[in-house]
Amino acid sequence: GLRGQLSGNVSVEVDAAPGIDLAQVMENTRQQYEILAEKNRQEAKNQFDKLIEQLNMEVTTTSHQLETHRSEITDRRNILQSLEIELQSQLSWKTERENAVAEIEAHYRTILTQIQMAIGNIEAQLMQLRSDMEQ
After folding, report:
1. d(CA 73, CA 101)
2. In angstroms, rounded to a whole number, what is the distance separating the alpha carbons of residues 96 and 103?
3. What residue ranges carry the coiled-coil annotation (predicted)?
4. How many CA atoms does the CB half-sphere of 110 hold within 13 Å?
């Protein structure tokens, strides 16, 4: 009968959804992570390079300012030394003038003393003369 005819082999193929390829998912994740890590590394490097450039500019500016200040200090020291030399010269000149004035005053005091002594002698002679005339 019919059963005998149907007792042959039957094969059934089923198109099922393929299984998730875990290895491929991990590879995709790893690649995305590497891309993100490289992007972050490049951004950090760019920020670092920019910061270094700014610091180098600040160091250069500060160095120029330092040289300018050093130059100003040297100039002012030179001016101060010149002024100190001029002051010493003026003080020496003043001392010389004061000494000259003191010498002149002493000389005139001596002359004045001599004149006063001469006047005293003349007055004494006049008194002697009057005294002699009255006698």
Report:
1. 41
2. 10
3. 23-54
4. 6
In order of 8, 26, 112, 117, 135, the CA distances from 123 in angstroms are 185, 139, 16, 10, 18
Lookup: tokens for 119 = 């006047």
Please give the backbone phi and psi of residue 28, each rounded to the nearest 5 degrees, phi first: -60, -45
Cα separation, 45 vs 34, in Å, equals 16
Compute the distance between CA of residue 87 and CA of residue 94 in angstroms, rounded to an integer.
10
Grouping H, G, I as helix, E, B as strand and the rest as coil, residue 92 is: helix
pLDDT band at 135 (very low <50, low <70, confident <90, very high): confident
Instruction: Quote the CA–CA distance of 42 and 39 in Å, as a whole number.
Output: 5
Tens digits of per-residue pLDDT, 82-101? 999 999 999 999 999 999 99
Question: Torsions phi, psi of 8, nearest 5?
Answer: -75, 175
Q: What is the pTM of this model?
A: 0.48
